[in-house]
Design goal:
heterodimer; A: alpha+beta; Ubiquitin-like (UB roll); DNA polymerase, domain 1; 2 domains; five-stranded mixed beta sheet; 6 helices; 5 strands; B: alpha+beta; Aldehyde Oxidoreductase, domain 4; Aldehyde Oxidoreductase, domain 3; six-stranded mixed beta sheet; about 25% strand; 2Fe-2S (chain A); (2Fe-2S)-binding protein (chain A); 2Fe-2S_ferredoxin-type (chain A)
């Protein structure tokens, strides 16, 4: 098995590591670096529980090789956790009861974050479309949609307030 | 009476206190547990559905660098520690399951379904463990297979077990057939319905996972696993591994969903601790999604068909029903109970049914073992009777709402013993039906349906009136049903010296917010801030015994155990206060966390002060400490009920179903946290809708599973399910101290029938035969049904 030395930045911390050619990014993050926020649900890009941001783009880390992430900037749901208070997306998922068992939640939050970056005021249809790659077995999606709507509103309000300064 | 105090937490929409760890990614699931020196396990699974196994050659696997060991059934027989036994099916008085039909932990010379474990490989990392599995050579002799239960009981079907030539594991009858046949002879109207119910995969998003370790000096086996029932697992694994139960410690991290699929005692969950004991080092395993699809228990798979007889006024005279369950390759832990007694116990739903005859058979097939999935086989029962009511209304020429109204059990009839002997404790079925019709504006909706039909548009209105047995527990019921252990639940409350509280419960949360709703109960009762209450579940060392979370029971039975423990803590506090303030106990009042002497409110102590005094114990009347444990045993079951309605539009050219509305009117008694209750309804209804329209386990003719990934298996996505409107009704359960009724399973129980009835209703003018429904009603089946194609 060929090994590779790679460098990746995860949530702002630089890591140098050695991985096999076949090591999946999600396993490198979880098993080697201890970032257990992204969860493994299907190993086939279907469920989205392992969604992270790779250089700012939401991707499923179960179908990216660790070597492909060499030199990249990775953000996991854990990046939000280092802040003093919850991010509006995290807050809204909790307030709107947009999670039950929580296994899909890290992926849902990362996908939502990318959506709201792209489209700060999505309608219900756009939200449901954006979340199509993230499965949830507990909530029937209803309160997840509400959580995204609520987060979007909070973030727009904050952006407007900042714009006023 | 103590415990009547309130600080308003019970019934409040408290935001879940456990959420922060989930939204920040810090929640620890089993595969998140850091281990050092752990061996990673991977399982070799049978590639064939039915085969004799002549030889398993593990030598090439063992030679691979990084492989620690590979074990087959034969290796386990020869190992130092005792080989694992088979997984027992629960014993019942009415169905005996012979040990021959028990599911093995590891197959030896014969496999009965694709995916059955044949060997387990242990390696230094998870990739190498899978490489090892790939290098194992198996010499199979393939046998003819059968996965369709109807075909399995034919004379020419391949036989799974020699002693069961027709593959029938059980043949169970209820009721007097002749008497019911007589009712049919007297009938004015007779209608029939059949539901060919597919298998479903419960598919919690977190796969099954286990981490085990063994300490030879103490003989202690510690197991961390994703389960709904830690204490039952401890007991089962003790039996399977022949290990002392008190030397097994089961600890459960966060559980990423269960839906009934993490109740049963599984094979790998015993193999992993067996390997840890044999190797004397930690062993870890998490299933892949395909392993889950192929080997975790499937749900549903119970075909019911039958008839109803009515008099001239549309009153039910009797029901006959015939059932066939698709059991899979062995008889799993609970399936024989779920598909028989626990199915027909609600088959009359909300109706006064004087006579019932049913016969249900269990067919062994070369498929994954069948067992519980949210709603269990109450889903089949309610779907059958609600489809039958819809078909009967057509036959009689009466509106389906009116036919239900005429047959509902009156609100003044409770407690009401049904034809099956189930006692319905409380309810108001008329209120639920009328509320549903009112919210729907039913009459106008029917008019609009007529108008749209004239325009070639097909709107369908489906009603589903349900009952659901929650809070199973009464000893007489468990004994009668042959449930292996009466379903009490344990709850302990400790008031610490500082005044903070830890509460323990024998249930196991897997997403339903116990940490919040239990804390609401305890904090409300004790009159303390909710932040001061810590809830602990899922550790066999913290609480000696428990039953676990299933059957919509946690809040009803576990919550009641905590409520009673809180009352006991208050009583003990009262005696301490009486002693210290030198007043008679009966003069000590308690409210909002404070005790005081009647008529002298300045003579008072807070519960925190009492906790401190109880621990200091310089001057207490009895034992030190402030703690209480309750083993709560319900005397009655809490019957949840309601009416769901689906309004859909079906496009006959494409067979597509579009939701206009979904309404859920539910009587769950007192709701402790309405937000959590609604969340349970939303998720459950999505599963009911999905059963009606999308999900289906498919095997090919050779017993290969076609739907072994989420690419092929139609778990609904965000745009597949509609927004659900919920309406709260409440007739509090009279038996339990919370007045609560379980709601976790009601969504699929009511939802499947509501959607099926709506689709059939929409297609009625197009000649769609609703009397025989083969679920799910995919666009293809709908199109064929409308266009008269087979």
């Amino acid at each position: 098995m060929t090994e590779h030395d790679i460098e990746i930045t995860v949530n702002g911390t630089d890591h140098e590591m050695t991985v096999d050619s076949r090591t999946l990014l999600v396993h490198a993050l979880r098993d080697q670096l201890g970032y257990t926020g992204p969860n493994v649900g299907c190993e086939s890009s279907m469920c989205g529980a392992c969604t992270i941001h790779l250089d700012g783009e939401a991707v499923k880390s179960c179908t990216v090789l660790a070597v492909q992430a060499d030199g990249s900037d990775v953000t996991t749901v854990g990046d939000f956790a280092d802040r003093d208070s919850l991010h509006p997306i995290q807050e809204s998922f909790s307030e709107e009861h947009g999670l039950q068992c929580g296994y899909c939640t890290p992926g849902m939050i990362m996908t939502t974050s990318e959506l709201l970056e792209r489209n700060p005021d999505p309608n219900e249809e756009e939200i449901r479309e954006a979340l199509e790659g993230n499965l949830c077995r507990c909530t029937g999606y209803q309160n997840i949609v509400k959580a995204v709507e609520s987060a979007a509103e909070k973030m727009r309000t904050t952006a407007t307030a900042e714009g006023d300064d | 009476m103590s415990g009547d105090t309130t600080n308003g937490l019970i019934g409040d929409r408290v935001t879940r206190t456990e959420d922060a760890e989930f939204v920040t990614g810090q929640a620890e699931y089993t595969d998140d547990i850091a281990t050092s020196n752990a061996a990673h396990a991977a399982v070799l699974r049978s590639q064939h559905a039915h085969a004799k196994v002549h030889d398993i050659d593990t030598s090439a696997a063992e030679e691979l660098d990084g492989v620690i060991a590979v074990y087959t059934a034969e290796d386990m027989e020869e190992a130092e520690t005792s080989a694992p036994r088979k997984i027992p099916s629960m014993s019942t008085d009415y169905i005996q399951v012979e040990p021959e039909l028990f599911r093995p932990v590891i197959a030896s010379d014969r496999v009965h379904y694709q995916g059955e474990p044949l060997a387990i490989a242990l390696a230094e990392d998870r990739y190498t463990a899978n490489d090892a599995v790939d290098r194992i050579e198996v010499d199979y002799e393939r046998l003819e297979s059968v996965t369709d239960p109807e075909a399995a009981i034919e004379d020419d079907a391949p036989t799974l077990f020699e002693d069961y030539p027709n593959n029938i594991a059980y043949d169970w009858e209820f009721g007097d057939k002749d008497e019911v046949d007589e009712a049919f002879e007297d009938a004015e109207y007779v209608a029939s319905a059949s539901v060919d119910e597919q298998r479903l995969i419960p598919d919690p998003l977190e796969p099954r996972a286990t981490v085990a370790d063994y300490d030879s000096s103490s003989n202690e086996l510690s197991i961390q696993m994703s389960t709904q029932t830690p204490h039952s697992d401890r007991h089962a694994i003790a039996g399977i591994l022949r290990h002392p139960e008190n030397k097994i410690h089961v600890q459960v991290p966060r559980v990423g969903g269960g839906f009934g699929a993490k109740i049963h005692n599984y094979d790998v969950e015993s193999l992993v601790p067996w390997c840890a004991r044999e190797l004397e080092r930690p062993v870890r395993w998490q299933a892949t999604r395909s392993e889950i699809h192929q080997t975790s228990s499937h749900g549903r798979g119970l075909n019911l068909e039958g008839e109803a007889a009515f008099d001239e006024d549309g009153k039910l005279l009797g029901v006959r029903v015939d059932g066939l369950a698709d059991l899979g390759g062995y008889v799993s832990s609970h399936v024989h109970m779920l598909t028989t007694v626990l199915c027909i116990e609600v088959i009359n739903s909300q109706y006064e049914l004087p006579k019932l005859y049913s016969r249900i058979r269990g067919a062994l097939t070369n498929a994954t073992c069948l067992d519980s999935y949210r709603g269990v086989h109450e889903v089949a029962a309610i779907t059958f009777i609600e489809r039958l009511m819809h078909e009967s209304a057509k036959e009689i020429g009466m509106d389906p709402a009116e036919l239900r109204r005429r047959n509902q059990i009156p609100a003044d009839a409770f407690p009401y013993e049904t034809v099956t002997g189930t006692v319905y404790d409380s309810g108001n079925y008329q209120q639920a039906l009328e509320k549903t019709l009112d919210v729907l504006e039913y009459d106008e909706l029917r008019e609009r349906q007529e108008e749209l039909r004239e325009d070639g548009r097909y709107l369908g209105i489906g009603l589903s009136a349900y009952t659901h047995v929650s809070g199973v527990g009464p000893a007489d019921v468990c004994k009668e049903y042959g449930i292996f252990k009466t379903h009490w639940e344990s709850g302990r409350i400790t008031v610490h010296q500082s005044g903070t509280v830890t509460a323990y419960c024998g249930t196991m949360d897997f997403g339903m917010g116990h940490q919040t709703s239990y804390a609401q109960i305890v904090a409300d009762k004790l009159g303390i801030p909710i932040e001061d209450v810590e809830i602990i579940e899922g550790d066999t060392r913290h609480l000696n015994d428990g039953v676990g979370t299933h059957a919509s029971r946690s809040l009803v039975v576990g919550g009641s155990a905590l409520a009673e423990s809180a009352d006991d803590v208050i009583e003990k506090g009262r005696s301490i206060v009486a002693h210290q303030l030198e007043a008679p106990e009966e003069d000590i009042e308690f409210e909002d966390g404070e005790f005081w002497v009647k008529g002298a409110p300045e003579r008072s102590m807070t519960i925190q002060e009492v906790g401190s005094q109880a621990h200091r114990a310089w001057d207490v009347p009895g034992e030190p400490g402030l703690e209480a444990t309750t083993y709560y045993l319900p005397e009655q079951m809490a019957i949840t009920s309601g009416v769901h309605a689906a309004v859909v539009e079906v496009d006959p050219d494409t067979g597509e179903v579009e939701f206009e509305r979904y309404l859920s009117v539910d009587d769950a008694g007192n709701r402790i946290n309405p937000q959590i209750v609604e969340g349970q309804l939303h998720g459950g209804i999505a599963q009911g809708i999905s059963q009606a329209l999308y999900e289906d386990v498919v095997y090919d003719d050779n017993g290969n599973m076609v739907t072994s990934t989420l690419q092929d298996y139609a778990m609904p996505k965000s745009f597949h399910v509609p927004e659900v409107e919920t309406v709260e009704l409440s007739t509090p359960a009279p038996d339990n101290p919370l007045g609560a009724k379980g709601v976790g399973e009601t969504g699929p129980i009511a939802g499947n029938a509501a959607v099926l009835n709506a689709v059939v209703d929409a297609l009625e003018p197009l000649g769609f035969d609703g009397s025989e429904v083969d679920t799910p009603l995919t666009p293809e089946k709908i199109w064929k049904g409308v266009n008269d194609q087979d």
